[in-house]
Design a protein that fits this description.
Pfam families: Aldose_epim. The protein has one helix at 281-284; strands spanning 11-16, 19-24, 29-35, 38-39, 57-58, 64-66, 69-72, 75-78, 88-90, 100-105, 108-115, 125-134, 137-146, 152-154, 157-158, 161-162, 173-175, 178-184, 191-196, 211-212, 219-225, 234-239, 245-250, 256-260, 270-275, 289-291, 296-305. It is mainly beta and 306 residues long.
Length: 306
């Protein structure tokens, strides 16, 4: 039926100057972002089930909880294994929630949803996701408030696949201002430890000076980020040989960024995922936010054409 709800949920189109974006309500997902008609992220159709986590908002954890098992507040919890091929709980609980639109303008939208207490995560969170376009690009923020009765572990981040221009990831140049990379096991991506990007793998992960990605495989978290002295932002930039590009900037609340060459998607875009905590933070506790009842936290990031 023509009146059937799109598979990606409600469609929210935003416009400002040369920028156009489209948000899907399921997962508060960035479905389309363009500048002067040029894609800045890998898009998908409005009446298409979102491919994996493309553009989704990740909460109450980004990345992986290994084996889906962790201990918090004296209790051992077991999450559903949503990455069954690796035996992990992947990218939180919000990605398939249908967010409600609570505020709307031509260039901005606010969406809300509740993470209800459930097996493996017995906490209630109120999530508010805002998107705003202006001459500087797309700005997204995620606010989480603990509306439950006890402390709750929390982390967040987005999952866009950036597009520099024509071609694929192999053709583009990456500038990633990170001095350390989190090494992982090859099969299950279980964290091992931090390494200097200049030494690990002969410097294969060192993109502090912009260079071609080529056929390098990356699916790693990076930290020890160099930030602007003026704004406090770290910026990851991807550029095509034609000179077009896209940049993603994020504040100090995101001390980590996951970068993935999207080998399972024909390397059509570079996943750049600012994160408030690293993979498996529910177990390591590294940079994990613990929200007391009534407390809230916010993280923000931006995407802009270059």
């Amino acid at each position: 039926m023509s009146s059937a709800r799109p598979l990606s949920g409600a469609r929210i189109d935003l416009e400002s100057g040369a920028y156009r974006a489209s948000i899907a309500s399921i997962g508060a997902t960035l479905r389309v972002l363009q500048h002067d008609g040029r894609d800045l992220v890998v898009p998908f159709e409005v009446d298409e089930q979102r491919p994996a986590y493309r553009g989704a908002t990740l909460a109450p954890w980004p990345n992986r909880v290994i084996d889906g098992r962790y201990a918090f507040a004296g209790q051992t919890q077991q999450l559903a294994l949503t990455e069954p091929e690796r035996g992990n709980a992947l990218h939180g609980l919000a990605a398939w929630l249908d967010f409600a639109v609570t505020d709307r303008a031509v260039d901005a939208v606010t969406l809300t949803a509740t993470v209800q207490p459930q097996s493996g995560y017995p906490h209630r969170l109120e999530l508010e996701v805002s998107y705003r376009l202006d001459d500087e690009g797309l700005h997204q923020s995620v606010t989480a408030q603990n509306s439950g009765r006890g402390p709750a572990p929390f982390g967040t981040g987005p999952h866009p696949y950036l597009v520099a221009g024509p071609g694929v990831v192999d053709d583009w140049t990456l500038e990633l201002p990170a001095a350390e990379v989190l090494t992982v096991t090859p099969e299950r991506l279980i964290p091992i430890g931090l390494a200097d990007v200049a030494g690990e793998g002969g410097g294969v992960f060192d993109f502090r000076a912009a260079r071609a990605i080529g056929d390098t495989f990356v699916d790693h978290a990076f930290t020890a980020l160099t930030r602007s002295a003026e704004t406090g932002l770290a910026t990851v930039t991807v550029t095509s040989p034609e000179g077009t590009g896209v940049a993603m900037s994020f504040g100090a609340e995101c001390a980590w960024v996951q970068v993935h060459t999207a080998d399972d998607s024909a390397r059509s875009g570079l996943a750049v995922e600012p994160m408030t905590c690293p993979p498996d933070a529910f177990n390591s506790g590294t940079d994990l936010v613990v929200l007391q009842p009534g407390e809230s936290t916010t993280a923000s990031w931006s995407i802009a054409a270059r």
